[in-house]
Amino acid sequence: MANIQEIARLAGVSTATVSRVINRHPYVSDLTREKVLNIIEQLDYVPNSNAKSLKNGATKVIGVMGVTYNPLLMSLVRSFHMISQKYGFNIMLFMTDGDRDKELVALEMLRSKQVDALLCLVRTIEWDIIESYTKYGPIVTWQRLTSDTIPSVFMDQYQGYTLGLEYLYARGYRKILNVYSSKGQNTLERIRAYEDFVQKHGLKNTGFPQFHNKVTIHDGEEIARWWIEQTDKPDAISCSTDEVAAGILTEIQRSGFSVPDDVGIMGFDNTDSAHLLDLTTIHYPVDKQAENAFNIIMSMLENSASNLHPLQFRLIERKST
Amino acid sequence: MANIQEIARLAGVSTATVSRVINRHPYVSDLTREKVLNIIEQLDYVPNSNAKSLKNGATKVIGVMGVTYNPLLMSLVRSFHMISQKYGFNIMLFMTDGDRDKELVALEMLRSKQVDALLCLVRTIEWDIIESYTKYGPIVTWQRLTSDTIPSVFMDQYQGYTLGLEYLYARGYRKILNVYSSKGQNTLERIRAYEDFVQKHGLKNTGFPQFHNKVTIHDGEEIARWWIEQTDKPDAISCSTDEVAAGILTEIQRSGFSVPDDVGIMGFDNTDSAHLLDLTTIHYPVDKQAENAFNIIMSMLENSASNLHPLQFRLIERKST
C-alpha cells in the first residue's frame, strides 16, 4: 500500500505538507492541496484513521446523548453542531429514550475512545455512574447538576417560570392553570416557582388539576378540550412548551373561543411555533447554552480557560395574553 | 492491561460470551451480562474499539451528510436514526451547507472506515466524484438520481406538485403563484409540473414573478408582504414548504385579510406547522423514505435483498383552500 513518503515524493512536497492535507489543516494552498489529493486518488491511498486515532487518541467526534426531536432540543443540537463543526468536530447522536442500555452505549463509546467527549441532554442512569466515566473524557450536561466532574450549562427554571407567572399576574390573571413536562428537576423547579408565586400573592387554591408529561401540540389539543368542558375555567394557562401552547391556542380557536379574551396563553422556549402564532412566551437562549457546552468541552480537552456567555431568560410579549 | 481471557476466567464464562457482552449482542442473559460487566468494571478493561474496527472493519456508524435543520429533513433524520438504532447503528451528522470541503470530510470518513455507509441528503459535489467513493461502502441518496452504484429513495416531485395544482384547479383557482425552494432537480421537476399544468388547462400567463430559494417562515412572511402590495393578486399560492405557507398565512391574516376567502394557500410536506394552522398540503412520507434508505444500506452491507415500502404523495385537504 502507498505510504505518505511516496505521496510526498510524487507531489514534490514534504511529508508534513501531505499530513496537513490529509488532516485538513487550513494552511495549505489550494494548488498544493489539489496536487496532493490527486496523487492520493491515483495511488488509492487510505489514511488509516483508526490507526491514526490509536496514535493521537482523538477522533474529533463529540457524542450527543439523549437526543429527542422536539424543537427546543433540535435548536440546541443545531447550535452545538454548528460550533463543533467550526472547530473541526463532527457529532454523533445517541437517541436514548430514557433507556439505560442505550445510555450505556454512549458512555461506553467515550470509554473506548470512539468519541472524544459527551454532551448529555437527558439521562436516566444515576449521576454517580455517569461520573465514573469522566476519567475517559469530558462529559458536560444540559440538566441541572452540581458536580465536581460534570459541568452543567443548565438554566434556573425557577427564575424563568417565575418571570412568566409574574407577568400573567401583572396582566390581571388570577386563575392560572399549569402544564408541566416530564417530572425531572426542571419541572420540580417550575412547581416550586408556582407554589411560591401563589403564596407571595395570597392567591386561593384554584382546584385545577396539574397536567404532567405534556410537551407536544397534540397534548395541547387535549388540554384545550379539557378547558372547553370546564364550567369554572382557568383565565390563563402557563405551558411547558410553545408546542403545548400552540396546540391549546389553535384548538380553542377552532371551537369558537377567542384568545386572549377568553383565556390567556403563555408558551415557553420561544420557538418558531410561538413566532407563527403570536404567542407570549419565555425566550430560552439555547444557542448560547450550546456554545457554552462546546466551550467547556474544548477547555477540558485542551486544558485551557473557557469563555462563557451569560445566560438569561427573557419575556417575549405577543398577542396570546 | 486486562484481557478478554482473564475476564472470561473470572466470570466463569467463555471468551465468546465476553465478546458478545462487549459487542452488545442481544442473546446474552441479563444475569450473565451483569456479571461480565461487573468484572470489566473492576478490571477497568477498555475494549479497544479502534483496534476492533481495524479487525472487523465495521464501526456500526452511518454518516448522514447534508444535514440542515428544517422540519422535513429533521423528520427524515429522526426516522432514519430510529431504525438505525433498532439495528444497533449510531448515526454521525455532517452539516455541509453546500460546501464541497465539508462534503469531502464525510466522503473521506467512509473511505477511511470511520463510518460504514453514507446517507446523502443534499450535495454540491458532482455525482461522479461521489460515485468514486462507493467502492469504500454503501452510499444512498435522497436526491433524484439514476445511478448504478448510488441507489436513490427520491420521490417524483412532478407527480406530487401536480397533485396540488390539479386540486387547486378543481377548487376554481386560476391565478396561481408558485414559490419554489433551492434550484435543484426537485425544483426543476416542480417547475415542469407547473408548465405542463398551465398548458393542459390552457391558462394564460399570470405575469407573476417566480419566487426561488424560499423555505422558511420568514420567507413566507416576505411573500405575504409582496402579495398585500399587488393590485392584481394571485388567487392561490402553491408553496415549496409548509413553513413558507405558514409564514404567508399568518402574515396575511395579521394584515386583516382572510384565508381562503382572499387567497388560497397550499403547503407541502405535511409537517406540524400544517397541522397547527389547518393548511391544505401534500403529505410527504419521509418516514417510509428513511426506512427504505436504511433497508437499502443494510442489504448492501449484508449482501441481502431489501424489502422496500411503496412511496406515494397524498393530498391533505384542510381549511386554507
Explain this structure to me?
Chains A, B: InterPro entries: HTH_LacI, LacI/GalR-like_sensor, Lambda_DNA-bd_dom_sf, Peripla_BP_I. Chains A, B: This is LacI family DNA-binding transcriptional regulator. The structure is a homodimer of 321-residue chains. With 321 residues, chain A is an alpha/beta fold. Chain A has helices spanning 4-11, 15-22, 30-43, 49-56, 71-86, 100-111, 127-131, 157-170, 185-200, 217-229, 242-254, 272-276, 286-302; strands at residues 61-65, 90-94, 117-120, 139-141, 176-178, 236-238, 264-266, 281-283, 314-316. The first copy, chain A, folds into three domains: 4-47, lambda repressor-like DNA-binding domains (434 Repressor (Amino-terminal Domain)); 59-154 and 286-310, Response regulator (Rossmann fold, 3-Layer(aba) Sandwich); 157-283, Rossmann fold. Chain A is built from 13 helices and nine strands. In chain A, the strands form three sheets. Chain A has a four-stranded parallel beta sheet with strand order 2-1-3-4, with helices on both faces. Chain A has a three-stranded parallel beta sheet with strand order 5-6-7, sandwiched between helices. In chain A, helix 1 (4-11) crosses helix 2, helix 8 packs parallel to helix 9 and helix 10 (217-229) packs across helix 11. The model of chain A is unreliable at 49-55 (pLDDT under 50).
